[in-house]
Specification:
Layout: H1 14-17, H2 20-41, H3 46-58, E1 61-62, H4 63-70, H5 74-86, E2 90-95, E3 98-106, H6 108-128, H7 134-153
Antiparallel strand pairs: 1-3, 2-3
């Protein structure tokens, strides 16, 4: 359990509640509030988690590479990296092959911080998905992944 209480509207208007898009939006908003509250309780932000996770999984990256891999706009990645450097969670060093750009890498403290944040994220996932069985959770994950993949490759207007 994440220990974070987030109010949820109990009465759903029947017309909007009949649409998957409305249900997805409401669920996403609730999930976002839950995860934001969990990060805030540990002095972190979602951007911090995304950057730390990307560096852990992909290794050292340029700031532009971090922006691309995390989906964080390049103007926001600089501020996020500055915050993480100040907290000694990442290192920023000139790229030896191109001194005009910096390479960002995860520190030992950053890896330990990521491990603690991962525990909070897992707790929020448990709370969010509490009414679903394990097979239902896998099915939901598969369906959402399929939708996201489809809409990531097919532009809709």
């Amino acid at each position: 359990m994440s220990g974070v209480e987030v109010p949820v509207e109990q009465e759903l208007p029947s017309r909007p509640a009949g649409y998957a898009s409305w249900l997805l939006t409401q669920t996403a908003a609730h999930a976002s509030r839950m995860i934001s509250a969990a990060f805030a309780a540990s002095g972190a932000r979602g951007y911090h988690y995304r950057v730390l996770a990307a560096l852990d999984e992909l290794g050292p990256l340029s700031q532009a590479g971090l922006s691309r891999s995390t989906g964080i706009h390049v103007s926001d990645i600089v501020a996020t990296v500055n915050e993480l450097v100040s907290a000694h969670l990442v290192d920023r060093a000139p790229d030896l092959s191109d001194r005009r750009r910096n390479v960002i890498s995860l520190t030992g403290s950053g890896r330990r911080r990521l491990d603690r944040l991962d525990k909070r994220v897992r707790a929020v996932q448990e709370d969010l998905l509490a009414p679903l069985s394990e097979p239902e959770r896998r099915q939901l994950h598969g369906l959402l992944s399929r939708l996201l993949s489809y809409h990531g490759t097919h532009q809709t207007n």
